[in-house]
Amino acid sequence: MAESGGCCPPMDLMRSETMQLVQLIVPMESAHLTVSYLGDLGLVQFKDLNSEKSPFQRTYAAQIKRCGEMARKIRFFRDQMSKAGVPAKEMLVKENDIDLDDVEVKLGELEAELVEINANNDKLQRSYNELMEYKLVLQKAGEFFSSAHRSATDQQSEIESQQAGEDLLESPLLQEEKSIDSTKQVKLGFLTGLVPREKSMVFERILFRATRGNIFIRQTVIEEPVIDPNTGEKAEKNVFVVFYSGERAKSKILKICEAFGANRYPFSEDLGRQAQMITEVSGRLSELKTTIDAGLGQRNILLQTIGDKFELWNLKVRKEKAIYHTLNMLSLDVTKKCLVAEGWSPVFASKEIQDALQRAAVDSNSQVGSIFQVLRTKESPPTYFRTNKFTSAIQEIVDAYGVAKYQEANPGVFTIVTFPFLFAVMFGDWGHGICILLATMYLILREKKLSSQKLGDIMEMAFGGRYVILMMSLFSIYTGLIYNEFFSIPYPLFAPSAYDCRDTSCSEATTIGLIKVRDTYPFGLDPVWHGSRSELPFLNSLKMKMSILLGVSQMNLGIIMSYFNARFFKSSVNIWFQFIPQMIFLNSLFGYLSVLIIIKWCTGSQADLYHVMIYMFLSPMDELGENQLFPHQKTVQLLLLFLALVSVPCMLLPKPFILKKQHEARHQGQLYTPLDETDESLHVETSGGSHGHEEFEFSEIFVHQLIHTIEFVLGAVSNTASYLRLWALSLAHSELSSVFYEKVLLLAFGYNNVLIWIVGIIVFIFATVGVLLVMESLSAFLHALRLHWVEFQNKFYEGDGYKFAPFTFVFTANEDE
User: Fold this and answer.
1) What is the pLDDT of residue 504?
2) How many helices (H) and strands (E) does the chain have?
3) Is the dihedral of CA 780, 785, 786, 787 positive or negative?
4) Phi and psi (nearest 5°) for 753?
5) What is the model's pLDDT at position 817?
6) How many angstroms separate the first and last alpha carbons of the chain?
7) What is the DSSP string of 347-377?
8) Is the dihedral of CA 302, 308, 314, 317 positive or negative?
9) CB-based contacts of 363, cutoff 8 Å, min separation 6
10) Half-sphere exposure of residue 124, counting CA atoms within 13 Å on the CB side?
């Protein structure tokens, strides 16, 4: 929904804006600029006149494909900039100053250059990672070979020293045997490389089984994770050396290495050669590091160049794509020289639309101007409410239930006040209200900065509804002052208590030991009630009766709104056989109960209202006795009971028969509707009028009316009982607040220990914020939402319309594709 601007007449939330179906005939040469200007205006909702065509069969499919390709390149740039940490600069140049063809060429050149730089960097990085792994293999395997060589040398010298001390007769035989064995020695081959650590044990086991144990493997752990050349991700790996015999065993080992993702590297047994290879690899690594750094620097320069104009290009491409999508909804005329558009627009926007058409014709040097004309239709128009930042959140709450039917009475007008008030009835504590007010003022005072930032989901919702929360906090302070609760503590703000102890020995604050010594407490609840023995019975009675009064008042308001709807849509049937019987039924029962509550408050009577209401139905002829509140009460009750019983068939029976008679009269002798109708043709027809020339299903209408009547009769009882949630949640909030104060804060202060005081204060703050300010406020919010959606809006609100969704560029820059 658009916010009200300077061109618009004063905002009216009671009924949606008067809409019109307009037809635009636009020359081909000025079509693009016309749609662009209408998008800037944001007051036309185009209809798709090519719905039978697939997207590929439409006129501007090639242009949309072209814009889609440019959008893909922009998304690629955004990802690259995000990875490199390069921010996009704010847009300084107007998008009209750049040409789409120039943008397309520039995007293509920059993408090709960036792809080439990335490919080179990837190759260099892969080579660098391979050399890093190779260096580790050379170091770790070199350590293994050098230690093995030292061990073999020590063993050989030990054997030679042992042989020198043996008997000379045995010496030739042993030497002959050794010479024979040396001719039969088989040269062992070996492979070196790295294997992922989590696969190392399985790798070793598979090698052992595949070669039937004819291998010798050694593994060494690498302390630091290494970057894998294939995946580019860090991984923990082990260096391995596998000794084998024969080409068959080698081929098996190579296949297993490939299956386990083990990278193999060449290795020399010669210690001198090993040192030379380590030196060569280290030199190549330093050269590659320098080259990679230079490539990254060049890439960052290129990304900064892109970032300077990124927002400009992004907005331009999105606008162009939106324009061509809209142009594809237009149909070609028979001459194929003009485009025909149809769409909904508010009546007040006619002048602005015509000015935009004229400007587009002049700016595009078109020899023929566009034609603007209003069409007559029986189609239901969209619903459009002009809202501002204060009313938009409340309107969203109403629309979440259902979008209002065209020019139906809008519950949002009353919800602006009733919603935060009913919330505050359940959340009444002026200390908690001040906490919420301070948090909301932070959001409101910093709204310019916060509106341009990306907030989390919960914070985004809180920021969007900041003015609703502001109203809720103000009403909570008001009801908190009435309940006289500040974090459950009463304060004599407006005057001293009207009651005092009978004598100085009065230790308990109970009303039994109190006498009235001053005037009645001027505003809200007398603080002496808090902590007294009769606090809970008194507050229960007060809040329960107050909930019924508020509920009956709001339900009456809903029924009264149904009268204004019926009057606006000129439906006398709904006035006489829906509004009047519903008012009689509701007020004969629960309106009467509300009057009894007020009389009891004013007179101080001890009458039992439960007894009065129950026996009004069960034994209406019995005498009231001590429960009589006013003269002739029995007669009044009999009359109200009679009216309530009579109103039920009045709701059920007459309306279906009258609708049937109206249908027959409307279609008798006239099969066609005259063309020159009044503006009422735009109004949505009520009840049976939407059937048009279809057969009138009397049974369907009668069953619908029966369901509606039963729903209202039962709902009058259940909805009134539902408003008792105001009493229940208010009581729960008060008791929870009292528990946290007494069992946490006062308990902690009862100890003569500063540490316990600090812990108690911290626990009290977290309990208050977490439970009372967050969970309890959310609970009260949801219950207030239910009372408006179910108990209030179902009395008059159909909510079966559809929202006005104009073609606009306002949110294009912030939307993700």
Assistant:
1) 60
2) 26, 13
3) positive
4) -145, 120
5) 44
6) 20
7) GGGHHHHHHHHHHHHHHTT-SS--EEEEEP-
8) negative
9) 33
10) 19
